[in-house]
Amino acid sequence: MVVITLQRNKCIGCNYCVEIAPEQFQMSKKDGKSVLLHSFEKKGFHTMKSKDHSIYEQSNQAANVCPVKIITVKES
Questions:
Q1: Which residues are bridge partners to 5 per DSSP?
Q2: Predicted local confidence at residue 45, as pLDDT
Q3: What is the helix (H) or strand (E) element at residue 13, kind and residue range?
Q4: What pLDDT digit, counting tens, does each position of 6-61 carry?
Q5: Rounded to 5 degrees, what are φ and ψ at 7?
Q6: Residues whose CB is less than 8 angstroms from the CB of residue 68 and which lie 6 or more positions away in sequence, other chains included
Q7: What does the alpha-carbon distance between residue 43 and residue 24 come to, in Å, rounded to a whole number?
Q8: Cβ burial 31-54 (10 Å sphere, 16+ → b, else e)
């Protein structure tokens, strides 16, 4: 299981996550912040769970380049 979490309210809209992992992230036309696709929101954290382990590498790279460090990726 791969679990990706985005703390969207702290996003600065740099677009790095979208460039690295466009299958998981896109930019909102409404407010210019990142959106974690297929996620659910709870208390400001947007979380997506997937059984597809092939998304781990790109998602982890996106987390590493995020300048405000608001993306976490865990694999189990």
A1: 47, 72
A2: 97
A3: none
A4: 999 999 999 999 999 999 999 999 999 999 999 999 999 999 999 999 999 999 99
A5: -95, 80
A6: 10, 11, 12
A7: 20
A8: eebbbbeebeeeeebbebeeeeee
Residue 46: closest CA among 55, 33, 58? 33
The pLDDT of residue 29? 96
d(CA 14, CA 76): 29
Helix (H) or strand (E) holding 42: strand 40-42
Angle made by CA atoms 13, 16, 19, in degrees to the nearest 5: 120
Half-sphere exposure of 43 (CA within 13 A, CB side): 0
Q: Is 52:23 a contact under the CB 8 Å cutoff?
A: no
Q: What is the dihedral of CA 48, 18, 68, 35, to 10 degrees?
A: -50
| Separation CA 30–CA 57 (nearest Å) | 28
